[in-house]
Design goal:
Blueprint: E1 7-11, H1 20-24, E2 28-32, H2 37-40, E3 46-49, H3 56-60, E4 69-72, H4 83-86, E5 91-93, H5 100-115, H6 118-126, E6 142-146, H7 150-161, E7 165-170, E8 174-177, E9 181-185, E10 198-201, H8 215-219, E11 226-229, H9 238-246, E12 252-255, E13 275-277, H10 288-304, E14 313-314, E15 319-320
Parallel strand pairs: 1-2, 1-3, 3-4, 4-5, 6-7, 6-10, 7-9, 10-11, 11-12, 12-13
Antiparallel strand pairs: 8-9, 14-15
Helix pairs in contact: 5-7
Length: 325
């Protein structure tokens, strides 16, 4: 039996995804931008949110007859968890799996940069200054990874392979985890930081994780510890982090995500010598956009065939069903 081709609205900010013709081969494609979305959604079967930073979907969502399936070209879906979509029968999927290893490599890279003081070397080179220093080893250092989903697990394996001792923090405590050994409750994070060298944030943004790292948590960190955030900017109370860095109660921070993006030019974080800033790119390696399209295409073919979709998000929890965080 031949099924009619699904109608797919592709939301982008002016630059469509690569190989759009491959999507068009199995679907009726409508390219739309934020202002065109309200007219495109009624009667659309599938919404492919290529512009994952857009906040237009909530504003454009129809009162009735929304898409049956929404797919995000990102791992995080907090921007899509507005009440009308959460309460609807619409299936929400994400791009879990594309970013795991690249983000794990980014975290290892920032750990090495801190340990070997590479960021200082670059700044000294810019000023043509020769200044000998001693550096640190990473073997034997400890890391606590907040977020025990696929990205957190990839980070744990990468850091363990480099000789570090890794534990985790997630929704529930447990022992004997294959990647973390011990997993603590995220709610009890402050109680497990006194021996941690690197606090790594890789959790999704949910009601429970918003503002997780605040002055209370930072006060329990060792003054030699560093914070690495590849999760979401809102996991950290930025003003509390700035204060801890200024008062030397934290040795440094590597930040790939921020509560306001782009990071405003007047943010004190730009001027702090022990802060590494990257523009939300920890998972964006060469070929990543092609991988995102391949994942969507595989799901689209399953959708057209009536098969089960992969990476289905639990809309109440905010992440893919069956994965721990």
């Amino acid at each position: 039996m031949t099924h009619p081709a699904p109608t797919v609205a592709v939301l982008h900010a002016g630059t469509p995804p690569p190989s759009l013709d491959r999507i068009a081969a199995v679907a009726d494609v409508r390219e739309v931008t934020d202002d065109q979305l309200p007219d495109a959604l009624p009667g659309t079967d599938v919404l492919f949110v290529w512009d994952f930073r857009s906040d237009a979907v909530a504003r454009a969502w129809p009162a009735t007859g929304g898409p049956r399936w929404v797919h995000a070209a990102s791992a995080g879906v907090n921007h899509l968890l507005f009440p009308a979509l959460v309460d609807s029968d619409t299936v929400l999927t994400n791009s879990r799996g594309v970013f795991d290893q690249p983000m794990a490599e980014y975290v290892l890279g920032t750990v090495l940069s801190f340990a070997k003081d590479l960021h200082t070397s670059v700044r000294l080179q810019d000023r043509k200054q020769w200044r000998h220093r001693e550096t640190e080893r990473i073997a034997g250092k400890s890391a606590l990874v907040v977020g025990t989903g696929p990205i957190g697990r990839a980070i744990a394996r990468q850091l363990t392979a480099a000789g570090m001792t890794v534990t985790g923090a997630g929704r529930r405590a447990r022992t004997g985890d294959p990647d973390f050994g011990d997993v603590h409750r995220s709610d009890d994070l402050a109680d497990h930081l006194d021996q941690i060298d690197y606090l790594v944030l890789a959790a999704p943004l949910t009601e429970q994780t918003t503002g997780l790292v605040d002055s209370t948590v930072l006060a329990r960190c060792r003054p030699t510890a560093r914070l690495i955030n590849v999760g979401r900017g809102e996991l950290v109370v930025t003003d509390d982090l700035i204060t801890a860095l200024r008062e030397h109660r934290l040795a440094g921070a590597a930040l790939d995500v921020f509560d306001t993006e782009p990071l405003p030019p007047d943010s004190p974080l730009w001027e702090m010598p022990d802060v590494l800033i990257s523009p939300h790119m920890s998972g964006d390696t060469v070929g990543w956009t092609d991988e995102l399209v391949e994942l969507f295409l595989a799901n689209l073919r399953d959708y057209a065939d009536g098969a089960k979709l992969r990476n289905v998000v639990d809309k109440q929890r905010g992440y893919v069903s069956g994965s721990e965080h």
